[in-house]
Predict the structure.
Amino acid sequence: MKNAVDFTYYIRQASINDCPQIRSMALQVWEPTYGKILSSEQLDFMFDWMYSIESLENQMKSGHIFFIASKDNTPVAYMSVEKENANRYHLQKIYILPSEQGKGLGNLLIGHIERYICKKEQKKDIILALNVNRNNSACYFYEKNGFEVESEGDFDIGHGFYMNDYIMVKKIKRKL
């Protein structure tokens, strides 16, 4: 089966000690993900801004919960989520190494985040939001996973660079 999920994946919550591993994975996914969308100057700026060890540590200390997915004890994906308000979480990052893309791992990661949120919250309905570049082919993946475009924006990130994103949302219905 082409898109069957390989159940040898193991997902765990990351810690500060995992920041070098997350950065290493980011180095492998960053250019293939954004190389045809953003300039090399913007790629370098954003990578340094988001993936320095200090930045990753600060993200974790400020409430971003990171997860790492491994296959055969080798990290192959990472994601992070942050609570925005009482009823809304923001999926800040979800990246899979190119060698593992198209194998169903993305669906598994989205499901993991949804279960994590449902365990944390007592509310019936929760919104999971994310930003995705409007030219990123991942937009289709998110739509297939139940996300809808809520809005779009051009976000100034400094040094003359912008993130031109859709804000997509999915309602997570917690079973009571």
